[in-house]
Design goal:
With 322 residues, the chain is of the alpha+beta class. Helices cover 35% and strands 22% of the residues. It has helices spanning 2-11, 39-69, 80-95, 105-111, 123-132, 161-175, 267-289, and strands at residues 19-25, 28-34, 76-77, 138-141, 146-149, 181-185, 188-192, 201-204, 217-220, 223-229, 246-247, 252-253, 257-264, 297-302, 310-314.
């Protein structure tokens, strides 16, 4: 009996050691961890995933620049991945009734997202930029693979691009055989499979100004999480130190929300939701969330940052926290 047990134990396969690689993308730290592939295989597939993220970063810079230069010149052929991302962002524009979408280039430029500005923008210029952010100024033709941008408008994928890059990385990992993996890019995270302990990938929630106790952690199992926060203005400052998200309906930086956490299946949806609901706030946001499938989970932290925040949630009890 003992020799048989020893043979079984010696013959039992050992789990591969976790493989983790770090990089930078979109000016933010990035990490990918794989737990179910041999070391060399895991390293190779992670490198492919990182290369795909770099390609999405290139597309959302140079590709958008080309489209913006062609505004008013009719349909333009684009990479299918950029077309897919623009379709998601435009859907968010319609869903949020114009609060957050892909046509806010001029508004974000006026408020200094990419390049600092010294003074608040002129109201007339803000009004003009609001008009240029109208959802229907962007026409997509998936069958022909083209994008048409109205004259005078401009594309900006702030609040979408990082999430989409994470989803593309997840697809590359899956194609390479990884079923238990984790991707972090800035404030966007996605967990594939059961994680290190079998119940999902642990994610520590952000500490919010004015909050004395730790927020805790959640576990992502084939889910994504994104955070939008007023404190993001530290590395993405808008004029006057405002939160780095502009309400594209009125052209003004969002107010009243300290931090928001959104959990759903795809990372691009989680990031789009986090920013859109940071802008709209919980009252309007809870009304709009009922129309979505799959149903996300959202947690708002409201306040000024000088006292304990008020927590408002939508289906937060559905998130795995144990």
């Amino acid at each position: 009996m003992l020799p048989l047990l020893l043979a079984l134990l010696l013959g039992a396969p050992t789990a591969p050691a976790p493989v983790r690689l770090a990089a930078e993308a979109f000016g933010r730290p990035m990490e990918i961890e794989v737990r179910d592939l041999p070391k060399e295989t895991a390293q190779a597939v992670i490198q492919k995933a990182l290369a795909e993220v770099a390609e999405i970063e290139r597309l959302t810079a140079g590709g958008l620049g080309t489209l913006n230069a062609a505004a008013g010149k009719g349909p333009q052929p684009v990479d299918p991945r950029l077309l897919s991302l623009l379709a998601v962002a435009r859907d968010f524009c319609f869903w949020s009734e114009g609060a957050h979408g892909p046509l806010g280039r001029d508004l974000y430029s006026l408020w200094g997202l990419r390049s600092p500005v010294a003074d608040p923008p002129d109201p007339d210029r803000v009004e003009k930029a609001v008009g240029a952010a109208s959802c229907d100024w962007l026409a997509l033709d998936p069958q022909k693979g083209t994008v048409a941008l109205a004259e005078g408008s401009g594309l900006e994928l702030w609040g979408f691009a990082e999430g989409y890059a994470v989803d593309r990385a997840a697809e590359v990992l899956r194609q390479g055989g990884a079923a238990n993996a984790f991707i972090l890019l800035g404030s966007v995270q996605r967990g594939l499979g059961t994680g290190p302990g079998g119940k999902g990938w642990p994610v520590v929630l952000p500490q919010v100004p004015g909050q004395e106790d730790l927020t805790g952690k959640v576990y992502l199992r084939d889910q994504s999480l994104a955070v939008a926060a007023k404190s993001d203005s530290a590395d993405r400052p808008l004029q006057g130190g405002n939160a780095p998200y502009v309400n594209q309906r009125n052209g003004l930086p969002a107010q009243g929300v300290l931090t928001i956490v959104a959990v759903t299946d795809l990372a691009v949806d989680a990031q789009g939701l986090a920013v859109a609901l940071f802008i709209s706030g919980p009252r309007e946001g809870q009304l709009r969330l009922g129309s979505l499938r799959p149903r996300p989970s959202v947690l708002w932290f409201m306040g000024t940052g000088t006292g304990a925040p008020l927590l408002v949630d939508y289906r937060w009890s559905a998130v795995n926290r144990r």
